[in-house]
Amino acid sequence: MTTYVTLQDINEDNFESFMDMELPEHQRDFLDSNAYSIAQSKFYPDFFTRGIYCDGELAGFLLYDCQADDVPGLYGIYRFMVDYPQQGKGIGRKAMALLLEELRAKPDVHRIIIYYKPGNTVAREFYRSFGFSECGIDEQGEMIAEIIPSRLPDQQI
């Protein structure tokens, strides 16, 4: 079954639906809520939210920063989640490929980092499959993995 995945802006018409998305109990410790992330994006002008849609329906959420650590061109992916009922369908893989394509097209990008809990082995393997390499732990205890856009492998979307 072929699915059509897109990334779309989150706005006043759809934000409540994204805020209501929840992860199952066994995944909740791995990620801050979408509501918290949407609030952050309203106070930090370099934070951007995107909705993940599959076949026109809400399927997930992401948040990235175009000046991670206040460094222009350092893009940080802070949140990436697929709604639990949509997991296991390849939506996350297509959405990550689209996000990396979108970030790689930014004229100032020189490095992309992503954060995740060190115990989240599913995330670790998922991000590794896109070429991210672990490079340390931040002050909050989250793993930092990086990718250099010029070295991004072309992904099939």
Describe this structure in words.
- The structure is a single chain.
- The chain is an alpha+beta fold.
- It has a single domain (5-151), classed as 3-Layer(aba) Sandwich (Aminopeptidase).
- The protein is 24% helix and 30% strand.
- The protein is built from 4 helices and 7 strands.
- A 7-stranded mixed β-sheet has the order 1-2-3-4-5-7-6, with helices on both faces.
- Strand 2 (47-54) and strand 3 (57-65) form a beta hairpin.
- The relative contact order is 0.15.
Which spans of ≥5 residues are poorly predicted at pLDDT below 50? none
| Assigned CATH superfamily | Gcn5-related N-acetyltransferase (GNAT)
Order of helices and strands: EHHEEEHEHEE
- Largest sheet properties: 7 strands, mixed
Strand order of the largest sheet: 1-2-3-4-5-7-6
Overall 3D form: globular
Q: How many helices in DSSP terms?
A: 4
Name of the top-level CATH class: Alpha Beta
Q: Could you tell me the mean pLDDT? A: 87
CA(first)-CA(last) distance: 14 Å
Radius of gyration: 15 Å
Structural class of the secondary structure composition?
alpha+beta
CATH architecture: 3-Layer(aba) Sandwich
List the helices and strands and how they pair.
Elements: E1 5-9, H1 15-19, H2 34-43, E2 47-54, E3 57-65, E4 74-82, H3 91-104, E5 111-116, H4 121-128, E6 133-137, E7 143-147
Parallel strand pairs: 4-5
Antiparallel strand pairs: 1-2, 2-3, 3-4, 5-7, 6-7
